[in-house]
Design goal:
The complex is a heterodimer of chains A (247) and B (160). With 247 residues, chain A is mainly alpha-helical. Helix content of chain A is 58%, strand content 8%. A three-stranded antiparallel sheet of chain A has the order 1-2-3. In chain A, strand 2 and strand 3 form a beta hairpin. In chain B, helix 6 crosses helix 9 and helix 7 runs antiparallel to helix 8. Classes of the chains: A mainly alpha (247), B mainly alpha (160). At the A-B interface, helix 1 and helix 2 of A face helix 1, helix 2, helix 5, helix 6 and helix 7 of B.
Chain lengths: 247, 160
């Protein structure tokens, strides 16, 4: 590089041309576009921020209103629920006519005076007292006819749901007969019950068992001496005849 | 015009094109947010504000990036007998050698050179921006060109 050739004018020209080239390469138009875009963005952002702040304030106000309304509704509900409970408790404290026993409903002063009031089931011998029934449970636990009955018929808790066949098995079990004898003989209880039923020498005990456990009521026809097993609940005759028959 | 001033003001600090471009964006975003303030300023004051903002933004970017361009990386032109003045002129538009020589100048010479040649400002505006009289400015301009000449002729070395 020779100094006398690189004059100040040439340096000036080099600088100007270099500056021009570099300025031409500057993305001035892109900057302008970017600036405009950012300007719009900033403007929109400020606008959005303002709108968001206003919306938030509006939502808070609305939320407060909703909260107040909700709290009011909850208070009213609690008040109504409490009043309902109070009313129900008062109502339950009084005996409802429908909840009274039949004898209580049918018993009147006139009945008492006329002596026509029906005795309760315990008094009438239909139902056994709990302590008496307790002593008979052992007999039911013993293996016998009942244990061999079909499962669906091995329960007599149904009371009035006991059909005739079930009642027969019940009676046979109570009277100490094995189910095999009854089933094997293919008895028709209406025709052959008297054959199968042994004398009711323990009639009182059996009666108690029938009445307390199987909810069967015995009804004796005084003229014929025939006892009928009837449903203890509805007092309908089951059709089972317990004929006292001597062996 | 303003964009070039900001760019070269930033470049005079960072001597890095990408940082200077980032500074331009920052400055004009800042100007956008201070539009109301800038409106009450005179044209000269607005120009000075943009220039100063460009310089400050470039400094901030350098600090943020913890990056500086060492003088050695400025790429001083190696002395080459084949590089005559005509050859330099032919290559000036495509090479960065002159730019590197300018970037290697001390700041007090680099700023006036860049604002005059690259930002295309006149002496009056440059004097106002740099807060110096035109005589001092012209002296520094002349001294700067001399240093560039020496740099290009010798192809290296620091200007102390």
């Amino acid at each position: 590089m020779r100094n006398h050739e690189l004059t100040e004018e040439i340096i000036d020209k080099l600088l100007r041309e270099n500056a021009k080239a570099q300025n031409d390469a500057l993305p001035l138009h892109e900057w302008k576009q970017e600036l405009l875009r950012r300007a719009v963005y900033e403007s929109n952002r400020e606008s959005l921020q303002t709108q968001a702040a206003a919306l938030k304030k509006h939502k808070m106000l609305r939320l407060n209103r909703y909260s107040l309304a909700l709290a009011g509704a909850a208070a009213v509900f609690v008040l109504l629920f409490g009043m309902r409970n109070l009313f129900m408790n008062t109502k339950e404290a009084l005996p409802a006519p429908a909840a009274m026993p039949p004898e209580a409903r049918s018993f009147t002063a006139a009945d008492e005076g006329a002596g026509t009031r029906e005795a309760p089931m315990e008094e009438a011998g239909i139902l056994m007292a709990p302590e008496e029934a307790q002593g008979l449970q052992g007999d039911l636990a013993a293996p016998g006819l009942r244990a061999q009955m079909p499962p669906q018929e091995n329960s007599v808790a149904g009371g009035s749901a006991v059909n005739e066949d079930t009642a027969l098995y019940i009676l046979l079990d109570v009277l100490g007969y094995e189910s095999s004898e009854a089933v094997g003989a293919q008895i028709s209880y209406e025709e052959n019950i008297s054959y199968l039923i042994k004398p009711l020498d323990k009639s009182e005990e059996y009666k108690l068992k029938l009445q307390s456990v199987y909810l069967v009521k015995l009804k004796r026809d005084e003229q014929t001496g025939i006892e009928y097993a009837v449903d203890a609940l509805n007092l309908e005759v089951l059709g089972i005849v317990l004929e006292k028959q001597q062996p | 015009m303003h964009a070039k001033t900001v760019y070269w003001a930033a470049y005079s600090v960072s001597r890095d094109s990408e940082s200077a471009k980032d500074a331009v964006q920052n400055v004009f975003l800042s100007a956008l947010r201070h539009t109301e303030t800038l409106k009450i300023l005179s044209a000269e004051q607005q120009h000075a504000w943009l220039y100063r903002a460009g310089v400050n933004s470039s400094i901030d970017i350098l600090r943020r990036n913890k990056r500086s361009i060492p003088v050695e990386d400025a790429g001083y032109m190696e002395a080459d007998p084949a590089y005559g003045p005509q050859a330099l002129l032919e290559r000036s538009e495509t090479s960065t050698e002159v730019q590197k020589a300018v970037a290697a100048l001390p700041k007090k010479y680099r700023e006036p050179i860049m604002l005059y040649y690259f930002a295309e400002l006149d002496y009056k505006k440059i004097a106002a921006l740099l807060q110096m009289n035109e005589g001092t400015l012209k002296s520094r301009m002349s001294r700067g060109r001399e240093l560039i000449k020496k740099q290009l002729q010798k192809g290296g070395g620091l200007y102390a």
